[in-house]
From TrEMBL:
Region Disordered, residue ranges: 1-23
CDD domains found in the cross-reference section: Cyp158A-like
Gene3D superfamilies per record: Cytochrome P450
Protein name per Swiss-Prot or TrEMBL: Cytochrome P450
The keyword Oxidoreductase is annotated on this UniProt entry: yes
């Protein structure tokens, strides 16, 4: 009988070994019950079809984690504001919130941001070029564009963007600051957003906060108490995660010169498929996904459910092992290969079904612009050292990528 238990971390996150480990795991079993050192357990689902099955099954819910009826079964401390967002909601509450937010978070709004995103990228690249090589691509570029876009999206005035950026970065930090400092920064950001939402409700502008404040469905609308967590969630989902995947995309191209040549030959044409391939191929951590929708936040079974031959008992927790599922040979041809023209690309990084990421179009647009702009400006971009990863941020993304040109 196959052993379906393992100690965390599982699988080990070494990129050099990850593909082979993931393949063996998928062949051996559809899921593994991961045992954490502190005692928590969760089923990690490895196969693409099995992950989709779980995400489509309404018998898996999240509300018990939001209400405190159950503790999240692994050592990730979610901020309280996240537990009031759609990520932790189930129908009918989730359906209502998603419908109202979708009215504000439209593809048209995202596309209107594309040109401003290009200008933000170009301004930052101008500064890099003036300073000269080498540069830290994360600090000088990929981390800066998403926060500028997010500020523009939410309607943060230009004069407030420096302090908004500082508060946002603190909200994602996991250590380095005292509890008092974290509380003070969090309270400052909270107060600022409350006041901004009130201002936009009184005098709507052409930004997301105004659209959320005025979204209507018959007699239903979003309250200020519901809008605030949505704005806070965007900080987690749309800032550092987007920067991390954009940086991974640049690194993947530099490490795959044959794919870089394909991209440079037709940047605009290849950028859309490149963005999805980076989302599929990037990251090796268990449950890694850009929005936290499928992998980071677990589900709990409300009754006994069989998934791909494995029984999950009522009350047991499950999570999607996104990276492993995204390399499933039953869903992707030659899955270990980084292919910038891969299509179709049914990756699960932005989740699936009920919890499919509402910000998916924004994440894709930003990645297309960030990666495309830097290679247009510096077609000879090259690595100038080894990348490093953050250990003090919630998303544990790339903290440094030295480059030259």
């Amino acid at each position: 009988m196959t052993d379906t238990t393992a100690q965390f971390p599982f699988p080990p996150t070494s990129p050099e070994k990850a593909h082979e480990q993931m393949r063996r795991i998928r062949e051996d079993r559809p899921m593994t019950q991961v045992q954490y050192a502190f005692g928590g357990k969760v089923w990690a689902i490895h196969r693409h079809a099995a992950v989709k099955q779980m995400l489509e099954d309404r018998r898996f819910v999240r509300k018990p984690f939001a209400t405190g009826a159950m503790e999240v079964p692994y050592p990730v401390q979610f901020p309280d504001f996240l537990k009031t967002t759609m990520q932790f909601a189930d129908p009918p509450e989730h359906t209502r919130l998603r419908r109202l937010v979708a009215k504000a978070f439209t593809m048209r709004r995202v596309e209107l941001l594309r040109e401003k995103t290009r200008r933000f990228a170009e301004d930052l690249l101008d500064a890099m070029e003036r300073k000269g090589p080498p540069a830290d691509l994360v600090r000088d570029y990929t981390l800066q564009v998403p926060i500028l876009v997010l500020s523009e999206l939410l309607g943060v005035p230009a004069a407030d963007r420096d302090k908004f950026t500082a508060w946002s970065q603190v909200m994602l930090a996991t250590n380095g600051l005292s509890e008092q400092e974290l509380a003070e920064h969090g309270a400052a950001l909270y107060t600022y957003l409350v006041e901004l939402i009130a201002a936009r409700r009184a005098e709507p502008a052409d930004d997301l906060l105004s659209a959320l404040a005025t979204a209507r469905e018959k007699d239903d609308s979003l309250t200020d108490e519901e809008i605030l967590p949505i704005a806070m969630l965007l900080l987690v989902a749309g800032f550092d995660n987007t920067a991390n995947f954009a940086t991974q995309g640049v690194l993947a191209l530099l490490r795959n010169p044959d794919q870089l040549r394909v991209f440079l030959a037709d940047i605009d044409g290849v950028a859309p498929t490149l963005a999805d391939e980076v989302l599929r191929h990037g990251g090796f951590a268990l449950g890694n996904d850009v929005e936290g929708s499928a992998g980071l936040v677990p589900f709990v079974a409300t009754e006994d459910v069989e998934i791909d031959g494995q029984l999950v008992r009522a009350g047991e927790c499950v999570m999607a092992d996104i990276s492993t599922a995204n390399h499933d040979e039953n869903a992707f041809a030659d899955p270990e290969r980084f292919d910038v023209t891969r299509s179709p690309n049914p990756h699960l990084t932005l989740s699936h079904g009920l919890h499919h990421c509402l910000g998916a179009s924004l994440a894709r647009m930003e990645m297309q612009v960030i990666i495309g702009s830097v290679f247009r400006r510096f077609p000879g971009l090259a690595l100038a050292g080894e990348e490093s990863y953050a250990t003090d941020f919630l998303t544990a993304g790339m903290s440094s990528l030295p480059v030259t040109w």
